[in-house]
What we know:
- The chain is mainly alpha-helical and 105 residues long.
- The protein is 77% helix and 0% strand.
- The protein has helices spanning 2-8, 12-32, 36-52, 59-71, 81-93, 95-104.
- The longest helix has 21 residues, at 12-32.
Amino acid sequence: MVFLKNIAIPNIDVFNLLVPWGELFVGVSLLIGCFTKTAVFFGIAMNFSYMFSGTTSTNPQLVLLSMFILVSAMNAGRYGVDGLIMPTLKEKLFAKKTREIKNAA
């Protein structure tokens, strides 16, 4: 109730903008398999905000299922778009670090 009174209701315009866009982006990225772990994290954050506002529905079950996806993070993006873009993204982001390790050895 504290979350609802102090955060959600005073900032209703922000929540009215963020919730539909967040649901859309999380859903699309889970469907196509792009940034799976990031989408699951933000999906859990939205589910917790729903539960903190007093809604229960199926949110506890969805949080539990999302936790299973996060725990299996190594395989959660193997197929789909993540399997195509993540190796390239990791190579470009961490190329300097791997070069330093190879030079140090």
